[in-house]
Amino acid sequence: MAAYAEARTLYPDATEITVVSVGTDDRQDQITYAAAKDWGLLGGAKQIAPVLMDSVSEAVDYELRALLGCTYYRLQVPHLQKASSDMDDVDPENLKNLQDVAEEYVSSISDVLTKMCTELAEGRGSNMPGIGRKLA
After folding, report:
1. Is the model's pLDDT at 11 over the cut of 90?
2. Residue 131 lies in a domain
3. pLDDT of 109 over the 80 cut
4. Domain residues for 99?
5. Domains in the chain: how many in total?
6. Domain membership flag for residue 38
7. By percentage, how much of the chain surpasses pLDDT 90?
8. Local confidence band at 130 (pLDDT 50, 70, 90 cut-offs)
9. How does 65-97 read in b/e, with b if 16+ C-beta sit within 10 Å?
């Protein structure tokens, strides 16, 4: 959402803005009442950060998809399955599994990536140095 706001500031006359958001994983560990009812205050506090992070991400996804004049792409592996989502898991096997998941994901969305890249290339309407259109 910050990228969209910044783009609107930089390009106030733009009629279309494309936003690409790259995620790291969609958490699959749903918290049920049955699992959480006996956690107590300390047990529940451990879950606050992941819940807040997911909530903010989902809210921004909803908002950007609803904006007129905004084409929004969310690139995110739906589930890591064969790799750990723990950010500190740097085991060589897990790193290899993460690479495999990424390659499979990129392959599965190749049509979306092609479309997205085409839109981004066509939309370079700025004359800002370094990122604007090439002058003939």
Report:
1. no
2. no
3. yes
4. 2-122
5. 1
6. yes
7. 32
8. low
9. eeeeebbbbeeebeebeebbbeeeeeeeebeeb
